Amino acid sequence: MRLRRASGRANHVQKHRDKRLLLVEDSRMFAAVLRHGLELTHGINVVHCASLASVKAEVAAAGEWPFSLAVLDLNLPDAPNCEALDFTLASNVPAIVFTAAFNDSTRDQILQRGVADCIVKNEPESIERLIAAVDRVLTKGRTTVLLVDSRAASRQDLAGILRRGRFAVIEASEAWEALAVLDQGEAIDVIITDTGLADLAGLALLEEVRKRQGEDAVPIIGLSDEGDARVAARFIEAGGADFIRRPFLEAELSGRVGHAAMLQKRIQALKLAAASDYLTGIFNRRHFFMTGPRLVEQYLRRGGGTSVAVLDIDHFKRLNDTYGHEIGDLVLKHVARRLKVLVGEEHLLARLGGEEFGILFDGLGMRDAFVFCERLRAELAKSKIVADDEELAITVSIGLATVEAPEAFENYLHAADQFLYMAKHAGRNRVISELTLLEALAS
User: In angstroms, rounded to a whole number, what is the distance separating the alpha carbons of residues 395 and 428?
Assistant: First the structure.
């Protein structure tokens, strides 16, 4: 058993600092390793108990700072028959079981009690799995599985297994249903697909998902009744994350799904770091131009258009020349922070470079997007920044273009840039779009 040094721990050590975890373990070695790993990785406050009696005392004394989660062994010297688990659950403390006393029937019985997860002590990387499970439960970040199977009975059985493994499940009976779920922007961590779907072979579904999502494609696990190893080989070669043949153990399915989701989340965390602007912390130009085309394709496939805006801080060069680049950076951070709050997670926001920002709206037509941009402009104009004891007013100009048909992504940005140019020459601190010009012509 080996606990790896947590990478980037400085970024995570504060994550669960406000939470308490009850560690119920009579092995001094496991208790020491788990406590160290949980405190190092998550910053969580760990209270260790080695007996049921001390568990009862700690829970009773918790008061205004109750336990957010318990990690416990099934068998203790004074509680050999899961009494500690029963007491913990009865006290409304979510629990993760971490024990060596496991077999298939025990696992089924424990999962049916409603524990958050079950992890076997003596399996490879069990400590890392436990630390990841604690983070998942505390952040309510349950893994969501999109299950695609044309056979109702089979789909029902698989969904039951996954839910007992504490996965959230979205079911689809055909490939087109699964693709519709992805197009709607549902947050999916893993797809499990039967390779013999009624409307589209699992291999073809895999290829379609990868074509639509590119590098950010959701990991897909193939499932088949066939014993032919070539089926699995073709699936993996085409980009599948894993392949499982029936019959299988429940623990095998849950373990493979959890592993695929964990790897995907690690990859996404690395990609997020690479996609962030170094100064403002929002997305950068590279991410905007890589993600934008896929999102536009998704919006158009749903049957609606959307809009894209380019926003520029007014008189930014003069501000830099007057107050220096340090104040210029302060202004950029301020504008990015306000935009992040106002735009939210629904739309794609990025710093395109210098004092220029881009927004790709999720399904907002020209009129709605114009109203949205006007609100952004007005809110930014109201905000103030203090520099050298002087209060600075910040205004922005915005160009807004519609996206109604498939074109090169650069074309949409070029159109928004043209409207931005008009906004600058019309006096700044305004939004100009095709709608603005049409209304001016009509008046």
Answer: 8
SS3 at position 384: strand
Token reading at 301: 């496939």
Please state the pTM of the whole predicted model: 0.57
- Of 174, 234, 224, nearest to 200 by C-alpha is 174
Other CB atoms within 10 Å distance of the CB of residue 215: 10
| CATH class entry, domain 142-271 | alpha beta
In CATH, what class is 20-139? alpha beta
Domain 285-442, CATH: 3.30.70.270
Sequence ranges of the domains in the chain:
20-139, 142-271, 285-442
Per-residue tens of pLDDT for the chain, all 443 residues = 333 333 333 333 346 777 889 999 988 888 899 898 888 888 888 999 999 999 999 999 987 778 989 999 888 889 888 899 989 988 888 889 888 766 656 666 676 666 777 888 877 678 888 888 888 777 655 678 999 998 999 999 999 888 877 688 899 998 888 988 888 777 788 999 988 776 667 678 888 888 888 777 889 999 888 767 788 888 888 888 899 988 888 878 888 888 888 787 777 777 777 888 989 989 999 999 988 998 898 888 877 778 999 999 999 999 888 888 888 999 999 999 999 989 988 899 999 999 999 999 987 888 899 999 999 999 999 988 877 778 888 999 999 999 988 899 999 999 999 999 999 999 999 999 988 777 767 66
Place of tokens 């805006």: 309
